[in-house]
Amino acid sequence: MIEQNLVLILILLPFIGAIAVSTISVNARNAAAWIAGLVFFGGLVLLVAIYPPISEGRSLHAVINWIPALRLNLSIRIDGFAWMFVGLVLGIGLLVVLYARYYLSKADPVPRFYAFLLAFTGAMIGILVSGNIIMLVVFWELTSLLSFLLIGYWYQNPAARDGARMALIVTALGGVCLLAAMLMLGHVVGSYDLDVVLGSGDLIRAHPLYPAILGLFLIGAFTKSAQFPFHFWLPGAMAAPTPVSAFLHSATMVKAGAFLLVRFSPALGGTEAWFLAVTGTGMATLVIGAMMALFRHDLKGLLAYSTISHLGLITALAGIGSTGAIVAAIFHIANHAVFKASLFMAAGIIDHETGTRDLRRLSGLMRSMPYTGTLAIVASAAMAGVPLLNGFLSKEMFFAEAVGWHNGTWLDNNLPYLALAGSILAVAYSLRFIMQVFFGPPALDLPREPREPVSWMRLPVEFLVLTCLVVGIVPGLSLGPVLNMAAQSVTGPDTPYYSIALWHGFNMPLMMSLIAMVVGTGLYLLLSEWIAKGPEGPPLLHRLRGRDIFDAALLVLSWKWPRLLHRLLGTERLQTQMRLMVLVAIAFATVPLLGALQLGPQRHSTPLDPAFALMWLVGSACAVGAAWQAKYHRFAALILLGGAGLVTCLTFAWFSAPDLAVTQLLVETTTSVLLLLGLRWLPKRNEEIPGDRLVAARIRRLRDLGIALAAGLGMAAIAFVVMTRPAIRNIGDWFLRNAYHEGGGTNVVNVILVDFRAFDTLGEITVLAIVGLSVYALLRRFRPAAESVDTPRQQTSEPLDLKEQMFVPAVLMQWMFPVMIMLAAYFFLRGHDLPGGGFSGGVTLAIGLLLQYIATSVRSLEARLIILPIRWMGAGLLFAGLTGMGAWLFGYPFLTTHAQYVQLPLIGQVPVATAMLFDLGIFALVVGATVLMLIAIAHQSLRAGRGAAQETPNRKQGVAE
Amino acid sequence: MMELVLSLAIGILTASGVWLILRPRTFQVITGLCLLSYAVNLFIFSMGRLTLAQPPILPRGGLVNPELYADPLPQALVLTAIVISFATTALFLVVMMAARGLTGTDHVDGREPDA
Predict the structure, then answer these.
(1) Which of A357-361, A488-492, A952-956 has the lowest mean pLDDT?
(2) Whether residue A208 has a cis bond before it, omega within 30° of 0
(3) Which of A372, A401, A537, A924 could form a disulfide with A876 if both were Cys (CB 3.0 to 4.6 A apart)?
């Protein structure tokens, strides 16, 4: 149990550290570095603590059930392989933290760097210890995202932005493919659990989906590990700060693809397709990457292509898949991480101290930087595979595997030659790196005077180079046990102990190493002059750059084609869009219903009441009238619209929906007033719009009439067919049975809204609040059209003064105000048991206030208004939310309610439920939002006059003169 | 045959609403949206079938027979829909006002048609 918790802490620690670092001051460079360092160190301590059970060959599991129904669990699983890899990430991470502290300049926002670095580490560990393959993909994409942020750390630099974008697009696309592969895997196996998937290799390989799974899976792994032809993003990512390159692009993230290949080789590997695709790609990448590296002039570019080449080597080993190959792959993952991280750090030091990374300008640095030079030479020797260093051992193992017989395909037969070619090139580029930078005459035109860096910056490199030596000289003692533990967790517990030794006698691999060293040195001596004069990249090949192809494709896909499509298919005309939308809606309803829509055998029918028919005769006339008059007679149309609304409201009342009737009536009132307030700002429409009687316009209207009739007919048909079928008992019954016992109210509709489905209602009132605020914000900068500015004719016409006309209604309305408040309170209080509720109460109060607006002048009311709508809204939302959270105090889920009745003097039994408090929040919010909207719109009549006076003084003066 | 009347009413409201939202003037569109929202609300409501004089308001205590009450679910849904359509109408109205002020026209495209 305690081990499980340790594992959980291990994965959470980096994320917590990231949050902590991101919140501290931008200038707190040391604090950020200390926190990051402590997190990495703490992680390593945890790792040591869980070593005993892991070393026994067990794997530790910790599961948090998340969505069991979807088989989605936060499942953590750490075995020997994952343990070793996590150790590598944390160990190199710790060194990178130290290195970066001295690498980054004072101007850089250091805490941001460490926050990203920590979050990245968390995501990387997440990939390694995920026990659920979907969770693995989530962490996988997270590393892509964070690597984007880290590459783009110097976002002022366009190369960094481009490199970051390219890396993100390539690796994230690969991640999508990986997700598809994992989903298919889960479908085939029937589980997303990693153990189950790894144990079902035979099932997967025999399944018809296997080729598709394999293809998508490999795209995911290859993009991440920069395998040919997806390798081009990695050199672009070298625009990142060097600590990032050392950590992500050599040691950890790019190895995630290799990790995935090794991890899933028991499930997906072992077929000829796997061998050809994985080993083939790996060998191609090995040779091409090494060749590109040899011709690079940029120091980091050379290292980047060398990384690509070494990743190819690991991939090739994973493709071979024998026990020895897996051991070699894991061994090389570790070795490469160590020597390449140290080389990147050395390159960073050179760049930092001299100001350039161009191999043609650098020369003779051994004189000014003897320590750094020595370290870099040892690390390069490891990269080239010189004996007594770690790179030599894993390369020997690779040679042994390449020479061995596997399946007799042409690729298998040619493996030794390809391996030898790659190795020769590796020796050549390593030699070029050393000779150009450290030997020869001292460089004269360097931007800075080279000197040794501060010793703290060199310390990580020293440590890594020491590791190269220790592992290279006493491999069996240093890394042997961990390596075997890791290999056994991949290939199974029966794997024999693989003894790594320095000396195996004069055998084939040793001969190959010797040939590689001799020929590689010769190659360098032969070509060095010529390469230095040549372009950045191998002859001919440098013109064909994956990066350019990528850029061209991106331009076409994200700019040219969308623009073309937009020009061909798009329209900016709203009417066309609406017409298309309606037509599509009609089509979508027609296609499935055509033929299926028919009357049921037993009709469910309610006897006709002539009054109802008469009512709808009026209602329909109102609707058609509104449609007819809306263009030239807006006021008439508005009145007719209100008529249709009233009939709708009566219909609700008629068919046993009192709550709806009340709400509809209140909303109808408010909407009408809102629209009336808006009418003033629309253009006068006394004369006909030109072109309205043209034939084209008539045809357009006729066509729209056809569409409208089709829509109406369809809706009527569907409604009729459904309504005449007997009702199907549904969840409504459950609400009816349980409203009283569970919700403590007798008005079921209200109980549903404030209790059973309170979460929906919370969302709904939030929408209302947002709309209120949007209305307010939109109208703050409102500028009316010039012709609407003057006071309307109706307000100024003599002799009938508006004030005199309105006197009696105004007094009545003022007297009605207390009554309205009573009514609002009444609606609110009875809501849980009888029609009403917070919403109705709120709108009622808002209407009461609105009446005051109509009765008195806007100015005098605004001076006296004590309701501050925005505060009411905020308070309402807060109250509703807090009521919901109150349930947590009693250990219930969000928005659970409690209900009982309370005897109040004079009033009698009053239902008191916590739902009522929620309803109170609704009430306050509705009052606030509605009043805010009404006031904002009504207020414009004041602003307009004032605004016009300010904006057009000349015109006013003209009138006065 | 209340069902027939109501479905015809829904049809007429829909047709008027759809015709209006295809029109070029903002006020026509907002009127159309209101009419369409009546139609849709009635449509959703009618999916619970028509019941006379059986509002979903229970007596206190005891078990109830659900068959004696109107289906509360469509009612609750429509109640939410009424509130949301109110909010959208208000927002649309303000956008309409602002657009008219900015562009000087009440055409839905923000400018008078060319021809």
Answers:
(1) A952-956
(2) no
(3) A924
Place of tokens 């459950």: A734
Q: What is the pLDDT of residues A138-188, one digit of tens each?
A: 999 999 999 999 999 998 888 899 889 999 999 999 999 999 999 999 999
Alpha helices (runs of H) in A155-298, residue ranges in sequence order: 158-189, 194-198, 201-206, 210-224, 233-236, 242-246, 253-268, 272-274, 280-294
pLDDT grade for A959, boundaries at 50, 70 and 90: very low
> Can you tell me the distance from the alpha carbon of A872 to that of A892, in angstroms, rounded to the nearest whole number?
28
Q: Which two tokens stand for residue A342?
A: 């140290």
Q: What are phi and psi of A360, to 5 degrees?
A: -75, -20
ipTM for this prediction = 0.96
Report the gap between the CA of A577 and the closest CA in chain B (Å): 9
Bridge partners of residue A410, in order along the sequence: none
C-beta separation of A42 from A93 below 8 A: no
Residue B47: CB atoms within 10 A of its CB come to 17
**H or E stretch including A622?**
helix A610-629
Q: Which of B33, B43, B49 to mutate to test the interface with A (most CBs of A within 10 A)?
A: B49
Q: Which chain A residues have a beta carbon less than 8 Å from that of B86?
A: 667, 670-671
Residue A290 pLDDT greater than 70, yes or no: yes
Q: Report the alpha-carbon distance of residue A191 to residue A185 in Å, rounded.
A: 8
Provide the residue type at B8 as one letter.
L
d(CA A129, CA A58): 14
Q: How many angstroms separate the CA atoms of A326 and A328, rounded? A: 5
Flag whether residue B78 sits within 8 Å of chain A, measured between CB atoms: yes
Nearest to residue A839, comparing CAs of A708, A747, A910, A911?
Answer: A747
Distances (CA, A) of A82 to A77, A280, A446: 8, 26, 44
Tell me the fold of B2-51+69-103: Helix Hairpins (1.10.287)
- The set of long-range contacts for A580-585, using a CB threshold of 8 Å and a minimum separation of 24, is A582/A707, A582/A711, A582/B18, A582/B21, A582/B22, A583/A707, A585/A711
Is the minimum CB–CB distance between B114 and chain A shorter than 8 Å? Answer: no
Hey, of B38, B44, B102, B111, which one would you mutate to test binding to chain A, going by the most A CBs within 10 A of its CB?
Answer: B38
Segments making up each domain of chain B, as ranges: 2-51+69-103
pLDDT tens, A842-900?
999 988 888 887 777 777 777 777 778 888 999 999 988 888 888 787 777 777 777 76
CA distance A761 to chain B (A): 8
What tokens appear for A380 in the block?
């390069």
- Tell me which of B75, B92, B103, B105 to substitute to probe the interface with A (most A C-beta atoms closer than 10 Å): B75
Residue-range domain boundaries for chain A:
270-502+512-533, 540-570, 746-961
Q: How many angstroms separate the CA atoms of B41 and A16, rounded?
A: 49
